[in-house]
Structure formats: C-alpha cells, structure tokens
Amino acid sequence: MLIDAPSLYFRAFFGIPESAARAADGSPVNAVRGFLDMLATLIRTRRPDRMVCAMDHDWRPDWRVALLPSYKAHRLAPEGGEVVPDTLSPQVPLILEVLDAVGITHVGAAGYEADDVLGTLSVTQPAPVEVVSGDRDLFQLVDDARPVRLLYVGRGVAKLDDCDDAAVRSRYGVPAARYADFAALRGDPSDGLPGVPGVGEKTAARLVERYGDIAGILAALDDPGSGFAPGLRAKLAAARDYLAVAPKVVRVALDVPLPELVTELPAAPADPDRLLALAEEWNLAGSARRLVDALAQPA
C-alpha cells in the first residue's frame, strides 16, 4: 500500500476542526490525528503487508515549471514556497516522528513530488500494489496487468473508490494509461493546467479515443483530411505549444532515484517508548492506540 501522505494530511487538516484536536499546550494536532486514524482504517480494512508513505520533497519541481510556468503558480507564497496553513506546517514533522516510532517507512526525493515517488514505487515494488490518494492525476498509475489499483479518497477513507482500469474508463471515458493526455487536454485549475480552451471532459475523451494520445492529435492537426471540425481544429492549433509540453508535466515520473526501503508493515511499534511519549505529549493516545491495534490484528 502506497500512501500519498500530503493528500491525506491536508484532507485530515481541513476535515477535523482545530478546536477538536489540540495538545496540552494548545497546539493543533488535527492533521496528525486524522492522518493516523486514516492509516488505521486503511490497515484494518485493506490488510496490507507492506506500506510506504510518500512525501513531497519538492511540491513544484523546477523541471515542470520550466515546461509550464503556470504549474501550481497560484499556490506560490509571496515569499516563495507553497501556501500552507500556518497551523498545518508544524504538524508534518510530528507525523513523521510518529511514523518513525511506529516503524512505517516514509520517503521523498529532491526535485520530485510525492506523486512521482508513488509512481516509481508502483512500478518497482512487487505487485499487487494499492495507491491511496485524493489526487486525480494518479489514475494514470492504474494497471490491471501488474496489478496496480488506485484507492481514491475523494469521499473519504471510509468511502474509498477502489479503481481498476474499468473504473477509470467508466469515470472519464479513457483507459488509465491515457489519463495524462486526457487531463492535459481538459486542464486542471488546481494544478495551474489551463487545458485547451473550449475542450471539456467529453471532447477530451473523444479525442483521446480517436487519436490515442496528444502526439497523435498533433500529428492529425497537420493532416487536412483528419476530420476535425473547423472550430475544434482552431482551438487545438492555438494550443499547440501548450500541448507539446503539458503531457510531460502531467505524467508522473516512474524513475525517481530512491534508496532501498524497508516496506514490511510491522505488527507492533518499532519504538513503543517513543510512541508512548509522543502520544502523551501531543494528546494522541486514542489515534496511536487505534493504529497499534490495527497493526496487531491477526493475519
């Protein structure tokens, strides 16, 4: 099980009021509690034997920005870095401390996003693999042949959408392997991807279905007999420069250099004393206990 940690802890932060989860000194721990409870639920219900939490060591890599300057530009803080709530930032190191005490591996890579770490692990770790995220871009990792599935948490961890290739096709009208081309055409305001103006999901899906990918679409543009309606041809032609780079931006890297990882999920905390100390200091006893109980459940 590969965990998109930023996706989950952001979801936890905004899903649990700060007033409902504070340490003794008043510090909010809502993201920590919610994240640990999500892990406990996933472990209890999906019963993985291996787990890695992927981290964002670079949320907006230079190589993606060089290709598309608008990439995540709307989330850039005036002083640089990502706009992150002031009360969330201090909770991320605490999440990592708890993971270390429990013995669940977390990893990131300089110059890459968590998505890229997840993509690389999805093709290098022994299958079957389940990727847990609320990021639609990760539909592209679904691969029935390995198999790799996406457990999409758009409605929360308790209401996972367990997605194989048929589910991606049903949702978007394209196979998972072509999701990046589809997303580049459609655009995604949350990532600063403009898409092709005037091309929505249905048109994007039809184009991918007919021409295979964006390279095929661009090749067809140069063929007067390719059958594009004049209006659509004009829209695509106007977006040619964008279409030449967008798939590279959307496509998840599958070759991130990562260290050797211990992926086995422990049956008991690696450092129980440290976990107990963290739970007491940060008022995390309930969440820590639920996670430990989930780890200890019989196979």
TrEMBL record:
Key word Ion transport present: no
Keyword Signal among UniProt keywords: no
CDD domains, A to Z: H3TH_53EXO, PIN_53EXO
Residues in coiled coil: none
This protein's UniProt keywords: DNA-binding, Exonuclease, Hydrolase, Nuclease
Matching InterPro entries: 5-3_exonucl_a-hlix_arch_N, 5-3_exonuclease, 5-3_exonuclease_C_sf, DNA_polI_H3TH, FEN, HhH2, PIN-like_dom_sf
UniProt-recorded name of the protein: 5'-3' exonuclease
Organism this protein belongs to: Micromonospora citrea
Lineage of the organism: Bacteria, Bacillati, Actinomycetota, Actinomycetes, Micromonosporales
